[in-house]
Write a structure and sequence with these properties.
Elements: H1 4-10, H2 29-32, H3 38-58, H4 61-67, H5 72-88, H6 91-99, H7 102-128, H8 131-137, H9 141-153, H10 159-167, H11 169-175, H12 184-207, H13 213-234, H14 248-272, H15 278-285, H16 288-300, H17 308-328
C-alpha cells in the first residue's frame, strides 16, 4: 500500500548516502512534471517498495519459527548469531564500527535489547499457540506506536493515528477468534511482543541516520547475542545445554531465517525508515499477519477455518493500511 503521503508529512525526503539517490535539479522535467513531483518523491517511492518487500519476507518468519524444533530462546540466539557472523565478515562493517561514537554504540546496543525481547516473545507466542496467532498479534503494534512515537520523536501527537491503530484490534480479534484455552497465554505473550515491536520501531527512528544499516544491524543483534546466554541461565530450563546445537534440518531452516528473513529485510527496513515515519512503516507491517496466516495454512496445514470471521479480520487490517494513506494525507499534521 502507498504510504508516501503520510511519510512525507513527518520525514521529508532527502538524498540518502546508503541508496545513492540524487535529487533532480530544479527546473528539470522530472522535478516539475506530474502531480506528485516524481523526481522529488523518488526516495520515498523506493522506501515504500523496500518496506513492502520486507513485509513479504517477514511473512515467512512465523512459519519458519514453527518448523524449527528449537525452543524460542536458542532459536532467537542462533538467528542473531548467524546474522552477526555474516556481517562481521564484511570489511566495510568492521571499518565503520571503529569510527562509530560510543554514544551511538550504546544507543544501538540498547535498542538491540528491545529487539531481542521482541523476538523472544514473538517466538514464545508461536511455540505457546501457533504461527497464525503469533503473527496476528503483531497487528496490535500500531495502537502502541501511535502513543510511543510522538514521545520518542517529539512530534505532535495526532489522535487520528491512534484511531487507525485501534481500528486493527477488531481485525486481530476476528483473526484469532475461537482460540482454544491452551493458546491464550500465547496471545498475551504475542501482545507483549507487539508492544516491544512498536518501541523498537520508534527508537530506531531517532538514530537511524547515525550509521549504515548493516552497522546498525550488527550492533543491535550483537547485543542480543551477548544478552541471551545470561537470560538462558536465569530462566528455568530442562536438562541439556542452555543453547543446544541445531540438527541439520534446523540448521538449514535457521540459515534461511537468518539471511533471507532477517538480514535482508532488517537492513532494508532501516534504510526505508530514513524516508518513512515509524508509524507508516508499522501500518505496512500490518500486512505481515495476512501473509503469515496464509503461508501457515499452505505450508503447515494449520487447520484454521477461513470463514467469514477470517475474511472480516483481513478486511479490517487492509482497511487500516489503506485508510492511513487516505486519511492522514488530507491535511498536514
Amino acid at each position: 500500500m502507498d504510504t508516501l503521503g503520510a511519510a512525507s508529512q513527518h520525514c521529508p525526503a532527502r538524498p540518502s548516502r546508503v541508496t545513492g539517490t540524487r535529487s533532480a535539479r530544479p527546473g528539470t522535467k522530472s522535478d516539475t512534471q506530474g502531480p506528485f513531483f516524481i523526481g522529488a518523491m523518488r526516495p520515498l517511492a523506493r522506501a515504500t517498495l523496500q518496506i513492502h518487500v520486507c513485509v513479504l519476507l517477514w511473512g515467512f518468519t512465523s512459519v519458519l519459527g514453527r518448523l524449527i524444533a528449537l525452543p524460542a530462546l536458542p532459536l532467537v540466539w542462533w538467528r542473531m548469531a548467524i546474522v552477526v557472523g555474516v556481517l562481521g565478515l564484511l570489511p566495510s562493517v568492521r571499518r565503520q564500527l571503529r569510527t562509530t561514537s560510543r554514544r551511538l554504540l550504546a544507543a544501538y546496543a540498547g535498542i538491540g535489547v528491545v529487539v531481542t525481547l521482541h523476538w523472544l516473545t514473538f517466538y514464545g507466542a508461536i511455540k505457546l499457540a501457533n504461527a497464525s496467532v503469533g503473527a496476528a498479534c503483531l497487528a496490535l503494534a500500531p495502537a502502541f506506536l501511535a502513543i510511543i512515537e510522538p514521545l520518542t520523536t517529539r512530534r505532535r501527537f495526532d489522535p487520528r493515528e491512534l484511531l487507525l491503530g485501534v481500528a486493527v484490534v477488531p481485525g486481530v480479534a476476528l483473526l484469532v477468534g475461537g482460540i482454544p484455552h491452551r493458546m491464550r497465554s500465547g496471545v498475551m505473550i504475542g501482545a507483549l511482543s507487539a508492544l516491544l515491536a512498536a518501541l523498537f520501531n520508534a527508537l530506531n527512528k531517532r538514530v537511524v541516520h547515525g550509521a549504515h544499516p548493516f552497522v546498525i544491524t550488527f550492533i543491535e543483534l550483537a547485543a542480543g547475542v551477548l544478552l541471551l546466554p545470561w537470560l538462558a541461565a536465569l530462566l528455568p530450563h530442562g536438562p541439556g545445554p542452555l543453547l543446544p546445537v541445531p540438527n541439520m534440518r534446523d540448521a538449514w531452516l535457521l540459515a534461511v531465517l537468518a539471511i533471507a528473513c532477517t538480514l535482508v529485510p532488517f537492513a532494508l527496513a532501516l534504510t526505508a525508515l530514513r524516508h518513512l515515519t515509524a508509524y507508516a512503516v508499522q501500518l505496512a507491517v500490518n500486512l505481515e499477519p495476512v501473509y503469515s496466516i496464509l503461508l501457515a495454512v499452505l505450508i503447515l496445514g494449520e487447520q484454521r477455518e477461513l470463514d467469514g470471521s477470517f475474511y472480516a479480520g483481513v478486511a479490517i487490517i487492509l482497511g487500516a493500511v489503506i485508510g492511513e494513506k487516505a486519511w492522514l494525507t488530507r491535511s498536514p499534521t
